[in-house]
Structure formats: structure tokens, C-alpha cells
Amino acid sequence: MEEIFKVISEKPEYAAWVFGLINALWLAFLYFNKKRHERELIAVKQSFDLDLERRKKVFEMKATQYESYFRHIDAIHNKHQTDYQDVLTPIMNEFMSSYLQACDHNDEAEATQATIRFSEQISKITRDGFQELSVIESETNSLRLTASDEVAVLLDEIKELYDQLFAISGKMMSDLVKITIENDQELAVKNQAELMRVGELAKSKAKELREQMRNDLKQI
């Protein structure tokens, strides 16, 4: 310490130059350090903004896909709520009227035609069902690309339940002639009970899926 004071006393100009240089270097360090921190803060902010924008886009994309999926599901449910009363019953009544009238007149040709018309109408309903099933399958495949594992599992389970519903509906329609001609109410009740059972399972799984989709969106 004494040596330093001695140098300062003997060479004040040199000491002033040294202190000035040190101060300049210190100020330069502070300046460049501040600039570096500013650049880092800007980079962090830009990264944060980009992440927020990415998450926002992912949220909007998933929300739109989930909404579209349940729009289709709800539309199918609403469309088929009164199918038995509004669609199948008139077809059955028309068939029975034509078929029984043909039988009364021993008109086998007309009885055959009545059965053919009935089968064609049932086939059209089946084709429409295939189209609805393909929509669900397409929506499921699209969602599985970005959905969480939990959502993907539920999507597959619901798809399987709708496959079962379609198969049961097909059996019900194929049994209609037997039920109608033979008045086999036991078979009709059995088919209806199975359809209701699987339908309730599908509704329960759909409710579970809605909740899981909400959780999925919250985690984005």
C-alpha cells in the first residue's frame, strides 16, 4: 500500500492516467455488459412471445378440431333420436300394408315387390349410416395426430362403440321383416335393449372425452 502511495506522490500524472484508464475500462465494461443483458432480455422476450404465439395457435387448432368432432357427434345423435318413430315405423307400415294385401290376394309377385321395396329403403338407411361412420372415423384419425394420449385412447374407444352401434342397427333392420311378419316382439325388445345399452356407453364415454379434451386444452 505504501509503495502505491509513493508512486502516486512521485508521478501524479501517471497515476491519474492509470485511474482514468481503469475508470474508462470499467465504464466500457458496464456499457457492454448492459447491452449484452439488453440483448439477452430481448431474445428471451422474443422467445417468450414466439412460445405464446405457438401455444395460442396450437390451442386454437385443437379447440377447432375438438369442436368439429363433437358437432358431428351431436348432429348424428340429434338426427337419430326419433329414427324409430319418424323413419322406420312408416317404412314398416308401408311394407306391412303392401305385403299383407298381396298375401290376401295370393299375389306372390306383389309380395316380392313389397319386400324388394322394403329392402331398398333399408339399404339406403344403411348407406347413410356408413357415411356417418366414415365421418366419425375421419375425424378420429385427424384428431389422433395432435391429441394427448388420454384423448387418443378415448377416441378409439368411442369409435369402437359407434362400430358396435352401427352393427346393432344393421341387425335391427335386417330383423325388421321377421319382427313385422311374425310379430316377434321379444326379438324387437332384445334388439332395442342392446342398442340402448351400447348407446348409453357411448354417451358416457363422450362425456368423459369432453372433460379430457378440456384438460388437454388447459395444459397447452
From TrEMBL:
Please list every transmembrane segment annotated in the UniProt record, as residue ranges: 14-32
This protein's source sits in the domain of life called Bacteria
Keywords (A to Z) from UniProt = Membrane, Transmembrane, Transmembrane helix
Q: What is this protein called?
A: Uncharacterized protein
